[in-house]
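Have a close read of this protein, sequence plus structure tokens, and explain what the tokens say about the fold. Thanks in advance:
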Amino acid sequence: MRAKLLTASFSLLTFAPLLFSCTHQTPPASLQTTLYVYRFDPPALIEFSQDFQINREIPFSLPPNCGLLDLFPPPAGNFIAIELSCPGGQTVLFLDTLSSLNAGSAPAAVSQPVTDSDSHFLAWTRDGKAAYLKVDSLGNAHIVRVDGSGKNESIPISGFTYDLAADPGNDDFTFAFSRGLGQGSELWLAKQDGRTVQRLYADPSNYISFARYSPDGDQIAFIKIPDTQTPFTVGELWVTPATAAQGAEDSNARKLADADAGHGYAANWSPDGKRIAFVLRENPQDEQADQLSEALISNAYIVEVASGVLTQVTHLANGRVETPFWSPSGNTLAFNAVINDRMEVQIVELRTGEIRSLITESACCPTWMRK
């Protein structure tokens, strides 16, 4: 999910960031870790080793007139979900990262699970074998679960759903939806493929966005985005016990920090579940930044969940940082940095604070996978 600055930039609808869900979930700990980054020119998915050296390149060109929105790795597996912005709307592709492993410079195998309408990525299932998509958003909007073979199953939850997250411990999932501008939003728990649902949290003044389970499944973090006509503003990072699913609506939700809102930047749990990395807007009084993403000044921060202590990770005074992602070891964060209208992928070693670019070419969408 978050709007990306591309070589040929494009603009999103005011509420488009609510439709994206950056569900970079924490995968099982026993599998091999690989970092991928998309390079725009020449176009390819770049695979890095654990010491951040380039292992190989997987040729992949964006379809004509389409822009790259994001990459979404599964909890485990070989397929990366790719979300594009195309003339007909958002489109999700599945790319097999192993298909070109023994094929030299041959392009990777790519499939399109939904071909008859637009599609928006919501989340992978907890086993990484299928993905939840929102399809036909401007017509008969509904939620489906699709796998790599193209099998398509309808999920009976609200077609107004804009966010979904799988419980890491079972087949339950949360979903958030809004009935329209000025009506706030609600967070629900779904069991039995959505046939049994229960409301967990409601907010009449905010969109509950990017709700994500902690790695142990005990807590849920989410960002509140003010329900206004202002495209970009300051929101709030909250956390609530997931035990609300066992009873009435939870009243123990608490705010951890202010957070950027409207750009589609998710907050992500550390692998040990003790910290959350997120994006904070540095120029909240700048009215131009309320309307134009290019005017945003932002940085990555980390908050300690138990104490609420904040640590600033990056220190951009001009430019913006987008959603930070944890390495499986918890020692490194990777993120997009947009400086002077140029997007690159940077990493920060948290023990030393050292920040560096991964490659010299324009790139985006760092994605850690285990397979």
Q: What stands out?
A: The first strand starts at residue 33 and ends at 39.
